[in-house]
Amino acid sequence: MTFTSTPVTRLLVIGLVSASIGASMLDIKHYFYITIDTHLWRYRQLWRFFAYQLCYTNSIEVLFAAMSLYNLRVVERMWGSRKFASFLAVSWIFTSLVPPVIMTVLRPLSVGLFNYMPAGPTPIIFSILAQFHAMVPHVYKYRVATSQSTRANDSSGGVTLSDKSYQYAIALHLSLLQWPGSVVGAFVGWIVGNAWRSGVMPASLVSWRLPGWMVGLSSQRRSAEFEGLRRRLEGENGPGVGMSTGIQSEGQQAERRRTMGQQIVDQFREAL
């Protein structure tokens, strides 16, 4: 499987990897994480709210994030690129603001434990993961025995997993790499994704869409898509409809091919 029909996901993966490598090569990684007491309280660097999700600061997080986005590309295929990109834009706004604010509130209560918000779009990945969890059904399940005495027909022993479990495991590992900040971001992303789906968000945000040209949708492409849909619907209506349509079109073409003289002679014949 590749990034077929998922241009937004392909751009996310390429952009995330490129930005992370570029930040490391240019030695500007210190601009992409948030230290609550220094960056927000002391220097009021509020622009970091919208910068910390642009890249990661270590290669392990880049690897697991790219794997997670690749596994979640099916969400874009089911929704379409325009709706998926609009969902990402709304999620980015919420996940950029809410996790640092929660960290700011929890820091005085945790003796400085909640003082570091790591860089990276982990909240957005978990927002997409919430859609994946709700939309994509599992294909099969399997059970891993926890002891040698567990029998094959014993449903009480072992751990039941599905074909989607490894995707959850990759995302979970990503959220634990720089806890507690990464855990807070993942939790907020999961809540935002479910709020979008359950109708908790305002309907105007859920129904809002980016302009089509931003995701490569032109009027000609939409016309081609509608034409393809019309042809598929005509094919599903059965051969009878197609035959009658073909007969009518052939009759109309034959009528056009008749000369004016032949039409006048036919009219006189009918009158006589």
Automatic annotation (TrEMBL):
InterPro entries given in the database record: Rhomboid-like_sf
Topological type in the membrane: Multi-pass membrane protein
An example Gene Ontology molecular-function term: serine-type endopeptidase activity
Region (Disordered): 234-258
Compartment(s): Membrane
GO CC annotation: membrane
Parts forming coiled coils: none
Main location: membrane
TM segment ranges: 49-72, 84-102
Protein name: UBA domain-containing protein Ucp14
Superkingdom assignment: Eukaryota
Organism: Moelleriella libera RCEF 2490
Keywords from the named record: Membrane, Transmembrane, Transmembrane helix
